[in-house]
Amino acid sequence: MFPKILIANRGEIACRVIKTARRMGISTVALYSDADKDALHVRMADEAVYIGPSPASQSYLVIDEIVEACKATGAVAVHPGYGFLSENAAFAERLRQEGIYFVGPPVKAIEAMGDKITSKKLAADAGVSTVPGHMGLIESAAEAAKIAKKIGYPVMIKASAGGGGKGMRIARNDKEAKEGFERAKSEAASSFGDDRIFIEKFIEEPRHIEIQVLADSLGNCIYLGERECSIQRRNQKVIEEAPSPFLDDETRKKMGEQAVALARAVNYVSAGTVEFIVDKDRNFYFLEMNTRLQVEHPVTELVTGIDLVEEMLRIADGQPLSLGQEDVQFNGWAIEARIYAEDPYRNFLPSTGRLKRYRPPVEEASANLVVRNDTGVFEGAEISPYYDPMIAKLITWAPSRLQAIDGLAVALDQFDIDGVGNNIPFIATVLQQNRFRDGKLSTNYIAEEFPGGFAGATLGDDDMLALAALACRAAFQLETRGFEGQGRLTSEHVTAERSVLIGDKRWDFSIPKSGEAFVLMTDDGQGLLIEDGWQPGASIAASEIDGRTIHVRMDRVTSGFRMRYRGADLVARVVLPHVADLMKHMPVKSPPDMSKFLLCPMPGQLIRLDVAEGDIVEDGQPLAIVEAMKMENVLKAERRAKVTRVNVAEGAVLAVDAVIMEFEAV
After folding, report:
1. pTM of the model
2. CATH number, domain containing residue 329
């Protein structure tokens, strides 16, 4: 086995590889850029080498620097993780020429599967079902629209070298086809240095289901079941699970066998994933093959008990697979949520900054529940604008799907992040939806369930009562402990009636004496026993209310608490009853009118302005393009207006809510 490997990556996947390498007795070398000099993967590795400035194009994508790092440290093999150079044939070839092992597939397999046009032709030749489409290169937007119309709308416009949701657009008419072609081509050139585009039929009510394969250099190849990855936003996976709640044994076997057939056709070696799109009748079609470890690989590991990183390292060392197809066993259910630094209340725009608080749930492994958190950050770390905004991957395993979902929901309640926006409220909301719990998924799920965007979860009456009771208990604790600048009080000195206001709802509680127990009485005579609760200084309240345990994020605000639970973000005001009676007469402050301004919705770079001062713009007209996290975001006019002032120039780096231009009505 290799004595030392270099990990040509960063963040959580670098940390993930280090953990397995350490268990196998392999020394590790990390790489870091200016932005990552204090990163977790640098701290975890045995050695670390500076690789260049923060932009990936000047650091993690510089092949010469990585090769020199291997030579300087004596690393004999490179694990590329995912993203960056993981599917770069030139990188794998350079390592081969230098006598350095590549922990991944052969160069020819990367080349064949890395080009989506070539891969579809090879898949068809190998007997794999493929989606109807145009596999030739497309030269112009007009040609794209012509081809799309011939295939039949809707179509998917995709970058040949794309991945991670970049360089992909759905078009339902000629106008969208032309615009989608231009945006996909531009994103592809920026992200991959390859702007080739192809078009294929977009399958309605689709599911995204992928098959994990493992192949060694001795001719052995197996599949490890499937992963359901249908919950996506902007073609980027958000929630994944294994197995799929949709497949039957017959379809699973067919998909697995076709995935193996494709791997054999290109002489594949290492771990790889064959992605399929599956329609409502379980017809499946080849999408692409990812010649690397996938982000969502932990769910496969938890249901099979196989460490995929270990298998990759052993295969790269020339060893045979540790098991055959007949040895693959599936146990229970696993589900993964990608925790991103993004604001779900603002159309999931990226969020950058310092993690003022980062306290993930405690990892555990028992016969009935596994909680795993794959991460590359720590409290105080910086979420940089230079790289993918993933904070962590939270994964749970349980004997059944609903148990795994419920376990993940509790773990999300316990996940405490502050300093940057994050998508935990959104994921928590999805997990509680009946459609998701019933397994009725598709890649259209988010668009269909949140057509107007995400505005937070709506909790049921029982949950709202529990939060109100917890807020009342917490406020009483503060008063009896002498907070708020008062002298120390005892329960005898505190009025035992309180009202809790959350939005337009009100609960009235009284607090009777009950020995050491804390009991609230509602105005309709219902008694609530609250055991444990929020403690001053704590950010998570773990409370048992009438035998039901809940975990609520709580932060103090004026006269109450901000409470976050199961996707809801609420403010609970705890006041005396006569104060509550008067509060309904308080005026409501109206928000300022910002319709005369075009604000930058996320931190990013203004890469294009489409209008100038004095122009008349129409509703829906593109105004500017802001690039953030390598994704292009087109900002459009919301009404007819005149541009009176443009405040920034192309190339400017903008903060959230920076004023790009101003308007006046016409």
Report:
1. 0.84
2. 3.30.470.20
Question: Is there a contact between 4 and 26 (Cβ–Cβ < 8 Å)?
Answer: yes
Six-digit token string for 640: 């007819």
User: Please, is 379 exposed, middle or buried when counting C-beta atoms within 10 Å of its C-beta (0-12, 13-18, 19+)?
Assistant: middle
Q: Which residue has the tokens 């979902």?
A: 405
| Residue 288 known to be catalytic | yes
Three-state SS for 209?
strand
Which residues does 143 contact at the CB level (< 8 Å), separation at least 6?
none
Complete edge-to-edge strand list for the sheet that includes strand 270-278: 284-290, 270-278, 207-215, 221-233, 236-242, 333-340, 390-398, 370-375, 364-365
pLDDT 10s digits, 215-236: 999 999 999 999 999 999 878 8
Nearest to 635 by CA among 666, 614, 661: 661
Q: What is the DSSP letter of 15?
A: H
Residues 263 and 355 in one domain: yes
Same domain, 372 and 292: yes
The amino acid at 382: E
Alpha-carbon gap, residue 472 to 532, rounded angstroms: 13
Tokens representing 329 are 């066993």
What CATH number is attached to the domain comprising 622?
A: 2.40.50.100
Cβ-contact 426, 399 below 8 angstroms: no
Q: Phi and psi for 652 in degrees, rounded to 5?
A: -70, 145
Single out the catalytic residue among 87, 143, 187, 288.
288
What separation in angstroms does the CA of 253 have from each of 243, 247, 325, 491, 627? 13, 10, 11, 66, 42
pLDDT in tens, 580-626: 888 888 887 888 888 899 999 888 889 999 999 999 999 999 999 99
Whether residue 322 contacts residue 314, with contact meaning beta carbons closer than 8 Å, is answered with yes
